[in-house]
Amino acid sequence: MNLDWRAFAVLSALFAALTAIFGKLGVANINSNLATFLRTVVILAISALLVSVRGEWENPARWSTRGCIFLVLSGIATGLSWLCYFRALQMGPASRVAPIDKFSVVLVVAFAVLFLGERLTWKVGIGTALVSAGAILMAL
Predict the structure, then answer these.
(1) What CA–CA distance (Å, rounded) separates 58 from 74?
(2) Which of 8, 36, 59, 61 gives 20 to 30 Å between its CA and that of 90?
(3) Residue 24 in contact with residue 94, Cβ under 8 Å?
């Protein structure tokens, strides 16, 4: 199967939606921090299985130091995001928490322009404005 990035992005959105629904149901009777830990263990197991099945383990000596630093920072950001997300789901309605969480799209565009040198096209600018408006509208 040869899917391009758009297919994976759509699948990511689908699984993110399921994350909100399953997460909301999961944190109903479990502490949100413990729920995040359980979720992380499951993700670790699935990732290890995928890397094993695909034969993608590599010698750590071949890893780039810069890449590892940024992956560690990404992991920290992910962990903090999940902890906050599950706490928000525990406290609020999924239909309002998820759109605010998706405001990250706006922040990604801003950070990509500022730090990665990506060009802000008029289509991306308008789309970003619409995502912002939608997140704000749904949060009120």
Answers:
(1) 20
(2) 8
(3) yes
* Predicted pLDDT of residue 139: 82
Q: Which of 111, 113, 109, 106 is nearest to 135 (CA)?
A: 106
Length of the chain: 140
Six-digit token string for 33:
């921090």
DSSP 138: H
Which residue, among 18, 55, 20, has the nearest Cα to 138 in the 3D structure? 20
pLDDT of residue 130: 95
Q: Considering the entire predicted model, what is its pTM?
A: 0.83
- Rounded distance between C-alpha atoms, residue 25 and residue 34, angstroms: 14
- Between CA 86 and CA 32 the distance in angstroms is 5
Look up residue 79 and give its two tokens.
């962990």
* Residue that the structure tokens 């999924």 belong to: 94
Dist. CA 75–CA 17, nearest whole Å: 21
CA distance 124 to 131: 10
Residue with tokens 């071949």: 62
Residues 10, 15: Cα–Cα separation, whole Å: 9
Among residues 104, 81, 132, 74, the alpha carbon closest in space to that of 13 is found at 104
